[in-house]
Amino acid sequence: MIADAWKRLATLLALPLWTLPTYADTGLPPPSYSWPDSFISRLEASLLVETLNADLLSHDSATLTLERWCSAHRLATSPRIVAERVPGVDKTPTEEQRRELGVAPTELVRYRRVKLLCGNVVLSEADNWYVPGRLTPEINNVLDTTNTPFGKAVQRLHFHRHTISARVLWPLLPEGWEMSSAAPIEGIGELSVPAHVLEHRAVLMLPDGTPFSEVVETYTGNVLAFRMQKWRCHCSP
To answer: Rounded to two decimals, what is the model's pTM?
Structure first.
């Protein structure tokens, strides 16, 4: 009976990973690390993803949040976020996005797609629609001619962020797992980290509430591209 329960839980734990995009699907280089696919590892990874999610939701600049994450988890020798522009890509804003930005059908809205890297690790891919007429000429020049992350380019505007949606794309444990009577699973190979783990959609606004940008940020599995330190609990009996 116990063996059967373990097999059922193992099947449940594997199911969420079958339909998620892999690194091969996206063209991103796969991570050079591995976590054991155990119950504890899944709990640790889930907690880390939710921690990053909460940190992003509680700060206006995703760029600076990723920079702190990069530094805290030692993802690169120099924990600085840089943007790599994706050339030759254009996406026309939808009618819904124009409404959210408060622009007329004929008003110019530009599109910018970048990958945000910490060292050589891609942490996020961002689609950004912005209204150049609501930015300064200097900021527009930076966006047009450099790889500066959008959040840093507009930092001087003292903008605030309104989150439209935030989705965890990697369900590590099946719903209701905490109510299962089956024993936790240990030692089932390596944990298969998908290409993308989080997606945020937000509007950036000037201090007076005027929207000037809508961004869709997709965070990659590389936010977990580090090895967890092994620790022991020195607890009293």
So the answer is: 0.77
